[in-house]
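Try this one yourself first.
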């Protein structure tokens, strides 16, 4: 029950942040253009909280945190007193209306820039992308990649960490052509380049590990199979296992390290296994009923143990410190790259190169928000930045009912010198509403399917 409450709370907070910023953009620019704002609401439906400010604006929070709106004075919606007509939205110039409509997405991009600026100024830290092993016959092997190499760039894009490698590979999802890797053999800084051919790489795939699909297993230090912590009421605790116990076998088969233990436990959902352990140097054998858990639709075994903390070698950790100017430049570059990536992903989805099943709705957003928050505030706000960019790009699409659709209508009016006929506008809004509703329903369907 607590998990459900936590997930709903994180959904409300996460969407609340990006939606509030979006609507504040409309609100702020509308006020600067002399438009009278009647209501500023975060969320739809019945208001769970509202307050009338001295300037006449009603500020409210709706019961459904899946959007928001700014209600402005408009003669098309209700009669307007003669002395207030100049403050009506519909009486503003097309350029001013375009500015008001575009302000929401622009503020979402600004939010992303601010988040990345702060994160970059605080310094980036991550694991160096050193290759542990290469799968025979894989793209990585065809490119000549080898164990112990460090990937320093992909297609000329620097890859300081595994996260950067993953983003560079995301950009090539569904692509054909060549992919170029630049690598070094640490501690040498001599750069070697090699290429491999792609042919609609992972086109239509969903929920894939791009690094492993490339044929690369990242380097990891050997983690001893020693219990560092126990999950409350987990299978291990019920069986009497203790912190400090070292696993040496499962049903007589030797366990060499923690990863070997994890793989064996995953395959043992719902089974009773005999675990050989060392406790204070003395061998013991314990029968454990492995619990079954559903993760991303797959049933896996769960023992309820955590490894003792293992530090990566100092030379495997990458730090990048930037000054204010460098951080701002990097934030602008990262936000711009995300905008391009989002548009490119939409294009590939239309072309069938990326599976539409990758579309996510509120359930997935809530799960990712919760998971990133548990990893730390830096991860959470990086997700906020990504979500904010996605919302900004989506809202700029020239679909009526979205900001981009409004901008399209106002631009046509500006060029033609007269408004788009009301009949055409209404028809466009109906089509746009149908498309957006279908998109939302499909995204929600994907969410539910992932739960199953």
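Now uncover the answer:
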């Amino acid at each position: 029950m607590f998990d459900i409450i936590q997930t709903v709370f994180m959904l409300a907070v996460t969407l609340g942040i990006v939606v509030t910023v979006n609507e504040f953009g409309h609100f702020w620019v509308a006020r600067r253009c002399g438009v009278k704002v009647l209501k500023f609401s975060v969320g739809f439906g019945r208001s769970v909280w509202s307050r009338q400010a001295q300037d006449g604006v009603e500020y409210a929070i709706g019961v459904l945190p899946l959007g928001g709106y700014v209600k402005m004075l408009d003669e098309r919606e209700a009669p307007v007193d003669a002395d207030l007509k100049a403050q009506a939205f519909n009486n503003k110039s097309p350029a001013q209306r375009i500015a008001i409509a575009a302000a929401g997405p622009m503020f979402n991009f600004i939010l992303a820039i601010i988040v990345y600026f702060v994160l970059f100024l605080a310094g980036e830290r991550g694991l160096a992308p050193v290759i542990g092993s290469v799968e025979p016959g894989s793209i990585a092997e065809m490119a000549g990649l080898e164990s112990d190499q460090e990937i320093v760039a992909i297609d000329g894009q620097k890859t300081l960490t595994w996260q950067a490698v993953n983003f560079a590979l995301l950009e090539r999802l569904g692509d054909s052509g060549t992919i170029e890797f630049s690598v070094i053999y640490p501690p040498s800084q001599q750069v070697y380049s090699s290429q491999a051919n792609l042919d609609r790489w992972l086109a239509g795939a969903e929920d894939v590990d791009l690094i492993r699909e490339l044929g690369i297993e990242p380097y990891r230090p050997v983690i001893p199979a020693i219990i560092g912590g126990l999950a409350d009421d987990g299978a291990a605790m019920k069986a009497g296992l203790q912190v400090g116990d070292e696993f040496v076998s499962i049903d007589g088969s030797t366990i060499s390290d923690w990863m070997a233990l994890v793989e064996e436990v995953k395959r043992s959902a719902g089974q009773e296994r005999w675990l050989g352990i060392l406790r204070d140097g003395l061998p013991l054998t314990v029968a454990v009923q492995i619990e079954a858990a559903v993760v991303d639709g797959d049933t896996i075994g769960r023992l309820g143990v955590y490894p003792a903390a293992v530090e990566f070698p100092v030379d495997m950790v990458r730090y990048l410190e930037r000054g204010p100017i460098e951080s701002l430049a990097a934030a602008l570059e990262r936000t711009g790259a995300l905008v391009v990536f989002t548009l490119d992903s939409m294009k590939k989805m239309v072309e069938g190169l990326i599976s539409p099943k990758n579309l996510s709705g509120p359930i997935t957003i809530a799960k990712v928000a919760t998971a990133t928050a548990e990893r730390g505030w830096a991860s959470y706000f990086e997700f906020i930045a990504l979500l904010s960019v996605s919302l900004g790009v989506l809202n700029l699409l020239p679909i009526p009912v979205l900001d981009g659709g409004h901008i399209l209508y106002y631009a046509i009016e500006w060029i033609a010198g007269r408004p788009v006929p009301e009949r055409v506008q209404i028809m466009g809004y109906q089509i746009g509403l149908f498309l957006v509703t279908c998109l939302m329903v499909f995204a929600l369907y994907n969410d539910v399917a992932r739960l199953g």
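Discussion: The domain at 124-221+312-320 is CATH 2.30.42.10 (Pdz3 Domain). The longest helix spans residues 2-32.
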